[in-house]
Amino acid sequence: xxxxxxxxxxxxxxxxxxxxxxxxxxxxxxxxxxxxxxxxxxxxxxxxxxxxxxxxxxxxxxxxxxxxxxxxxxxxxxxxxxxxxxxxxxxxxxxxxxxxxxxxxxxxxxxxxxxxxxxxxxxxxxxxxxxxxxxxxxxxxxxxxxxxxxxxxxxxxxxxxxxxxxxxxxxxxxxxxxxxxxxxxxxxxxxxxxxxxxxxxxxxxxxxxxxxxxxxxxxxxxxxxxxxxxxxxxxxxxxxxxxxxxxxxxxxxxxxxxxxxxxxxxxxxxxxxxxxxxxxxxxxxxxxxxxxxxxxxxxxxxxxxxxxxxxxxxxxxxxxxxxxxxxxxxxxxxxxxxxxxxxxxxxxxxxxxxxxxxxxxxxxxxxxxxxxxxxxxxxxxxxxxxxxx
Length: 389
Fold this sequence. Notes:
The structure is a single chain. The chain is α/β, with parallel strands linked by helices. The chain folds into two domains: about 65-105 and about 350-385, no CATH class; about 110-260 and about 275-345, 3-Layer(aba) Sandwich (Rossmann fold). The chain has helices at about 10-20, 50-65, 130, 135-145, 170-175, 185-200, 225-235, 245-250, 280-290, 295-305, 310-320, 330-345; strands spanning about 70-75, 90-95, 100, 105, 110-120, 150-155, 160-165, 205-215, 235-245, 325, 350, 360-370, 375-380, 380-385. A six-stranded mixed β-sheet has the order 7-6-5-8-9-10, sandwiched between helices. Strands 4-11-1-13 form a four-stranded antiparallel β-sheet, with no helix packed on it. α4 packs antiparallel against α5 and α10 (about 295-305) crosses α11 (about 310-320). It starts with 7 loop residues before the first helix and ends in a 5-residue tail after the last strand.
């Protein structure tokens, strides 16, 4: 077969287009301008902000982020069952007493970004195998079909064990292989790290932090008030599974029971009733019976301080609109994780831009539902610090 001939007109056409391509100029508003942009004569170049100014700008970015407030709302009927049939018209949101326009409404459908922070200290060694078994429940019930997840482990230090991924098998494998650590329990630092990771996630995703560990902190550099304040600003909801170290101690050794210390050694800041012995049940009842967790959460957020609190995880959940599950048996850990997952995918999400109220200071959030005989749980508010002088 003879090769096809290339005619002169075709050669000329190809040569012309080849040499003219580099000379093409992008249309106005399309592509990159040909060459650098030069400042106008006499104009001073923009100065690089000083470190202090950069810090102020970062704080300003936080304040701008709060202009969109996300409010998670769980509604239950008289029997404690979740209510699924509400619409946006059934909700009224108040910011410092001023009713706000609900600009965003969703019911369990938005994708999640979830960080699981798990204590791996030797203090919970007898319970760690049961914690490892929650991997499949976390991936199937909490993450579901659309979530991305990450895993943090904490003892006397905080480590990111798994970065954000949608690979549920990878997440489950990481949880199944949780390492045993030292005797520390830096709960506040772990929560701070989790909130920091979630801050980097798109605002279109609901930001969830699930903490599994002891109710008491030991050795953290961050204060509980600082953590809660940042979580509120970043629209992070904290769910928790509080593990009983009392139960772990009883199972690990045969020595008589000693109450976990929430004050100086040798003292009992929250004593059990007269005539009763120190047991896990009595300790839990004494520590949680007469404390207003909501008032304590608000005080911590306002001040940014720490407090000797019997259950820091319950306070964190109360401050952000989440749920705390207190477990005393290994078999209840998976059930608690399942409860959290069930609520996450059956709660309402409201969004608004606060108007008619002062920018700085504490903002109290109230949510009312136009349905009788229901209870509403949501975040109590958020705090915006005034600008530093």
